């Protein structure tokens, strides 16, 4: 354990190690899709600072995949794989973005959120 390292310092773990080298998500994950937490059948057994737990905590606010990547300073591909894994495991649900009945304000808000997430990357 590195006692000189604080939780605010960036991790030196290579992003691909978080996905075991995988680059494809198991589920369809548009960058702008809102992702929400689901009450799992079994609670996760991860260490307190595990990135999957951080993603679950963020998903109470239903962020997009791009926002998750930006907030956690993860490459977009890594975030997509991790979110996809959590969806398959039953911890997260991908919500539809907008249907045909979406208002102009809803569309503008979605575009704005997506752009903010992408800029933060």
Structure description:
The chain has one domain (22-120). The chain starts with 14 loop residues before the first helix and ends with a helix. With 121 residues, it is mainly alpha-helical. The longest helix is centred in the last third of the chain and has 17 residues, at 104-120. A two-stranded antiparallel sheet has the order 1-2. The model is unreliable at 1-6 (pLDDT under 50). The protein is globular, with a radius of gyration of 15 Å. It is built from five helices and two strands. This is DUF742 domain-containing protein. InterPro entries: DUF742.
Shape by Cα distribution? globular
What share of residues are in beta strands?
Answer: under 5%
Tell me the series of helices and strands, N- to C-terminal: HEHHHEH
**Total beta strands:** 2
**Which sequence of strands runs across the widest sheet?**
1-2
Largest beta-sheet characterization: 2 strands, antiparallel
Distance between the termini: 29 Å
Total of domains:
1
